[in-house]
Structure to design on (250 residues):
């Protein structure tokens, strides 16, 4: 029986060339794993591409909720997200774990050394900025964003309840529109709009109540690349519809 190796596959042509070269050198069949980490890629197209190129099997898994809950949220609570606001290292950890799981199912070897992540639900790195406006080009009028937390979990923006992944996606759009979230990542253009705001909001509440029961709301002003906590109300519930704030003035 031919040996099998499970590779993380992003769909990039150069990634496939490296996978094929490694598999050929070891005389092994290729099994690919593509994860939906919130990067917005067409995963079914990537799956079809892998099979057309010769993969024995091509697995595609949606891990956005798991990534947000078990990795991003835990890092936020532990205070380590500020060291990796784009969550690229966290995403790589999840990819490595899923490679091992699929390898066990396939009776294969996991090519963990091939794991690189440049884009996910929380942030990205690249040659250019795509999630954030240049602060100079951001709207001159500030936006007021209110984030509600229930036991450490962000659950609403401006009075609108949201699932964690939806909340992160919404914050990315809002904060990025106002030029918030540009960070340095290995000399490249790093962006983490949602993380920048969530870290500030969580820290403001954690300083006002017991960390194990962080419940309340935080109001943050976004203006031309800056974000400033303007109020933190521990213990407050999700604001009602009548108190909703303007999200992103143009």
């Amino acid at each position: 029986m031919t040996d099998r190796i499970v590779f993380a596959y992003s769909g990039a042509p150069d990634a496939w060339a490296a996978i094929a070269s490694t598999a050929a050198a070891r005389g092994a069949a290729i099994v690919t794993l593509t994860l939906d980490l919130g990067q917005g890629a067409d995963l079914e197209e990537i799956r079809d591409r892998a099979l057309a190129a010769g993969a024995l099997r091509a697995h595609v898994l949606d891990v956005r909720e798991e990534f947000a809950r078990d990795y991003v949220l835990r890092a936020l609570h532990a205070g380590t997200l500020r060291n990796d606001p784009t969550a690229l290292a966290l995403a790589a950890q999840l990819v490595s774990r899923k490679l091992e799981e699929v390898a066990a199912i396939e009776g294969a070897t996991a090519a963990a050394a091939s794991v690189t992540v440049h884009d996910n639900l929380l942030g990205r790195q690249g040659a250019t900025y795509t999630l954030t406006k240049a602060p100079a080009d951001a709207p001159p009028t500030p936006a007021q964003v209110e984030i509600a937390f229930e036991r450490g979990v962000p659950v609403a923006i401006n009075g609108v309840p949201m699932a964690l992944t939806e909340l992160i996606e919404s914050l990315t759009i809002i904060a990025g529109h106002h030029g918030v979230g540009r960070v340095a990542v290995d000399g490249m253009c790093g962006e983490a709009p949602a993380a920048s705001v969530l870290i500030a909001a969580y820290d403001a509440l954690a300083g006002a109540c017991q960390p194990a029961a962080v419940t309340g709301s935080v109001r943050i002003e976004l203006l031309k690349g800056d974000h400033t906590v303007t109020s933190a109300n521990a213990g407050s519930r999700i604001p009602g519809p009548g108190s909703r704030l303007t999200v992103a003035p143009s």
Observations:
- The domain at 124-243 is CATH 3.90.1260.10 (Argininosuccinate synthetase, chain A, domain 2).
- The chain has a mean pLDDT of 90.
- The CA atoms of residues 39 and 152 lie 25 Å apart.
